UniProtKB/TrEMBL annotation:
The chain crosses the membrane at residues 101-118, 124-149, 196-220, 364-383, 434-455, 489-517. One of its GO terms (cellular component) is membrane. InterPro entries: SLC26A/SulP_dom, SLC26A/SulP_fam, STAS_dom, STAS_dom_sf. Keywords: Membrane, Transmembrane, Transmembrane helix. Signal peptide: none annotated. Residues 545-663 form the STAS domain. This is Solute carrier family 26 member 10. GO terms for biological process: transmembrane transport. It is a multi-pass membrane protein. PANTHER family: SULFATE TRANSPORTER. Its main location: membrane.
Length: 673
């Protein structure tokens, strides 16, 4: 670049100068991918469990089993063994399980969660518009499958209120109740069977969608459901759950409202029918909430002092069942009860595949919510306890869980907020806690089901409402969110209002679209930053607005920290024109400009052509353009757009420091920091 127009003579390396430049500094060699692989290798380390305390090493048979598994994987080839361990996580963590240190905690946590699964599963089944026993099935099969396939050590799966609400709305639309509402026992059984089939078909379709996403390695899609969207969605859905349970709390046989404005339609119907409320069921609901709500609060406030959380739900279920049986509330006051829970398991059968085209529009948001909530919960506890999860393996686990459990008449399922928190508070350490939870639910299905015959359905409605506590309390984070990011606050509020006013499905779509729009808008507001050399270092940092860069002989170092695509090309052009004074007569004309491209994560065809045009305009204006730190993909796009027809390879640099030093060798420039 000795032919720079108007270039002056730079001081020699041994001469004194007031330049704050790294002349004579020895720059590091660029760390190429080949050099990185040579130094560090390409094998991804397997996540390690926490350090094992003395005296808690795996017992001999498990150590021998681990050695056998490693030898079997070696015989079948390193690729097959790695794939087997990746797809069956117990092959990684079970041989290193600390039986003395962890078994008791997993057993206590699993039994505690299983006890909660029993009433909560029956309650969420009513929210799904299917008989209560199918909630027990959904609390058994998905938990068992996730234990074998999931990577979240502290995750508890099963019935989830938001998914039950979404599934119930779809089931009510697909299989509506007759207008008269007075069905015989046989008619009620036929209606329930059709609704169970529709719910199972939704689980099958959502599981198939998640498996398709796994095949395409789309676990990254969970990032598009941002934290404000997920929290606003669950908080708004909790309000829907509360309002939808009001008829059961008051003993009002009202049809379920679906579609847009369902929350307000339900409130209007309840207020209209309020004089016909059942005093007996209203009393049962009031007493149940008077017990459940304080117990929930005690469990939260004294979680560090209690050896295990108080199982308020199962206590309430037992008390209400005994009270209803001894007082004959079902016959004397017409209190709605659960009735007979069939023992054992249903015969496995394939859902009606003819319904799949009708339910596909409902299955997609169910699959997205199930995966997003599960992945975010797993990530929270993985960060807290210092281990990693595989988002694509989570897709496989939840996809297989929904797909296989649908064969046993289960409805859509995912990780749950309440039971996951309960499992952690009770001392759970690994996925083995899920097996103990399954044992509890299995005992109810096989032997203890008749004890729930006289359980009032109003108690299940109260359990639904009390389980929404965490979701309602998410609104307490709004003031802090306002202080941190007004944009995230806007995303939260838009999503919540859309969920409450319209529906959960539409609210989710609006929240995702609005969240993505905020990202696009923020990329369009980015400005080019002027960089200066930080004193005493070799690093170039953005200059503060209160100071100016003096361009004595015209060196200017700029950075554009945003993607360069069709939506930002105009802002990129205007910002560079203003910084370089293109088309204007400047008192201190720029002679050399160094453009730091490290912030340009990608460029499309329109953005690449904009850089090529910039190179042409700089050449016509007598400005020498140097590009530094271009990503390989961005540089490839620029090359395809014809950049090398405007600049030479000598104008491309690995670092800003090298580019600036190269220019300063030929220019006399003063850079203020």
């Amino acid at each position: 670049m000795s032919g720079l127009p108007g270039a002056g003579t730079c001081p020699g390396l041994g001469e004194t100068s007031d330049l704050k430049s790294p002349l004579g500094a020895k720059f590091r060699e660029p760390l190429t991918e080949a050099r990185f692989q040579q130094l560090f290798g390409d094998a991804e380390p397997e996540p390690e469990l926490p350090a094992e305390p003395r005296g808690s090493r795996p017992c001999g048979r498990w150590a021998r089993w681990a050695r056998w598994a490693r030898r079997a994987g070696a015989r079948s080839g390193p690729g097959a063994g790695r794939l087997l361990r990746a797809r069956l996580p117990p092959l990684r963590w079970l041989p290193r399980y600390r039986w003395r240190a962890w078994l008791l905690g997993d057993a206590v946590a699993g039994v505690t969660v299983g006890i909660v699964h029993v009433p909560q599963g029956m309650a969420f089944a009513l929210l799904t518009s299917v008989p209560p026993v199918f909630g027990l099935y959904t609390s058994f099969f998905p938990v068992l499958i996730y234990t074998l396939l999931g990577t979240g050590r502290h995750l508890s799966t099963g019935t989830f209120a938001v998914l039950s609400l979404m599934t119930g709305s779809a089931v009510e639309r697909l299989v509506p109740e007759p207008l008269g509402g007075n069905l015989s026992a046989i008619g009620r059984e036929e209606l329930d069977a059709q609704r169970v089939g529709a719910a199972a078909a939704l689980a099958f379709a959502s599981g198939a969608l998640m498996l398709g996403m796994f095949a395409l390695q789309l676990g990254v899609l969970s990032t598009f459901l941002s934290e404000p969207v997920v929290k606003a969605l669950t908080s708004g859905a909790a309000l829907h759950v509360l309002v939808s349970q009001l008829p059961s709390l008051l003993g009002l046989p009202l049809p379920r409202q679906i579609g847009c404005f369902a929350l307000f339609k339900t409130l209007a119907a309840v207020l209209t029918a309020l004089p016909r409320s059942s005093p007996a069921e209203l009393t049962i609901s009031a007493l149940s909430l008077a017990l459940l709500v304080p117990v929930k609060e005690l469990n939260v406030r004294f979680r560090d002092r209690l050896p295990t959380p108080i199982p308020g739900e199962i206590v309430m279920v037992l008390l209400a069942s005994v009270l209803c049986f001894t007082s004959s509330l079902d016959t004397r006051y017409n209190v709605q009860i659960v009735g007979l829970l069939p023992g054992g398991f249903p015969q496995p059968h394939l859902p009606n595949l003819a319904e799949l085209p009708r339910i596909l529009a409902d299955s997609l948001p169910i699959a997205l919510v199930a995966f997003a909530v599960s992945a975010s919960l797993a990530s929270i506890y993985a960060d807290k306890y210092s281990y990693t999860i595989d988002s694509n393996q989570e897709l496989l686990a939840h996809g297989v869980s929904n797909l296989i459990s649908s064969l046993f008449s289960c409805f859509p399922n995912s990780a749950t907020l309440a039971t996951t928190s309960l499992l952690v508070d009770a001392g759970g350490n690994t996925q083995l806690a899920g097996l103990f939870s399954c044992i509890v639910v299995l005992s109810v299905l096989l032997w203890l089901g008749p004890f729930f015959y006289y359980l009032p359905k109003a108690v299940l409605a109260c359990i639904n409402i009390s389980s929404m506590r965490q979701m309602f309390f998410q609104m307490q984070e709004l003031p802090q969110l306002w202080r941190i990011s007004r944009m995230d606050f806007a995303v939260w509020m838009v999503t919540w209002v859309a969920v409450v006013i319209l529906s959960v499905d539409l609210g989710l779509a609006i929240g995702v679209v609005f969240s993505m729009m905020t990202v696009v808008c923020r990329t369009q507001r980015v400005q080019c930053l002027a960089l200066g050399l930080a004193e005493g270092t070799e690093l170039y940092r953005p200059l503060r607005e209160s100071h100016k860069l003096r361009k004595a002989r015209g060196l200017c170092v700029l950075s554009y920290p945003a993607p360069l695509y069709f939506g930002t090309r105009g802002q990129f052009r205007r910002s560079l024109e203003w910084q370089l004074g293109l088309g204007e007569a400047a008192a201190e004309p720029v002679r050399v400009v160094v453009l730091d491209c490290s912030g340009i994560t990608f460029a499309d065809a329109a953005g690449a052509r904009e850089v090529v045009q910039l190179a042409s305009r700089c050449r016509d204006a007598g400005i020498h353009l140097l590009l530094a730190q271009c990503h390989a993909s961005v540089l490839g796009t620029l090359t395809q757009a014809g950049l090398l027809d405007r600049v030479t390879p000598e104008q491309l640099f690995v670092s800003v420091q090298d580019a600036a030093a190269h220019a300063l060798e030929r220019l006399t420039c003063t850079v203020w920091v």
